Amino acid sequence: MLGRTAASLFWMSRYQERAQNITRLMEVAYRGAIMAYDGQAEGHHWQFALACSGAETGYHEKHDELHSRHVTNYMVFSKDNPISIRNCLELTRNNARAVRTGITAELWEAINTTWIEFCDTSPQSVTQEKLPDFLAWLAQRSHLFRGALLNTVLRDDGYYFSQMGTFVERADNTARILDNQYWVLLPDNDIIEDGSSERYQWSAILRALSGRRSYRFAYPNAQLKAFNIAEFLILRREMPRSLAYCYDWLADTAEDLGQFYGSREPSLDLAADIFKDLKEKQMRDIYQEGLHEFLIDFIGKNNQFAHQLCEDYNFA
């Protein structure tokens, strides 16, 4: 496969995953804003979405205050925000169009229709009352993309590069959200009062990573606890957005890619090493190492894997 084809498939999936991640953060912010309790700073929930997405600096360069309307426009519709949902969907479509003959009709239809319908939506029409429905529509379109990819695409090198784009982005998103909020996940915070800001932030982290309900299944007899939440989102492989789950997929997919080409590139070993480290680690080891330090190290390793993959297969 040509390097530019591999790059388009990798970034097509990566940008679609990013759009879904931003959508989820906006859903959490909106939910928090309408359920805010006394004592929370005004705009706290929108600040959470900006900070966890890495868009905080860019937003404050354009706006002096936190306002739901400004945050929505910046995170969803802005052409000036590199990670806005609009830009992510456009880049998803551009990369898919570059390999139009290499993806299925169902996958192209899911991508193209999403972009067309998004462009037909006026930012002014998405009022705060209509925002939840619009975010739900965006989430459904992301699920349609993922379903079309998994159910119609041939399991060849193109599929493998696309999968890698998805899980590199997913792992990065999970690690950055956890690092942004790492201080509320330290064991010292396990004993807190109901209604505290820490308890809200625990719920917000789980919701931002689609883990609020599945946490209850994984820990059926336990209340929300910092230790359990951190373990759930880092080491539990049954959680689809945990770091361990992402690298379980990446290590397997790298192995499949190596077998497909009949060669073992450095990125394959790097993915295997990262997964092995996650599989063997205990949460207490991570706390002893330092949660923040562990997450920063993981983000660096994840970026290193992505760069090595690009180098091994001649794409950027």
TrEMBL record:
Pfam families membership: Alpha-E
Superkingdom, taxonomy of origin: Bacteria
InterPro entries, per database record: ATP-dep_Glu-Cys_Ligase-2 (IPR051680), DUF403 (IPR007296)
Signal peptide: none
Domain DUF403: 1-313
Annotated protein name in UniProt: DUF403 domain-containing protein
Lineage, highest ranks first: Bacteria, Pseudomonadati, Pseudomonadota, Alphaproteobacteria, Hyphomicrobiales
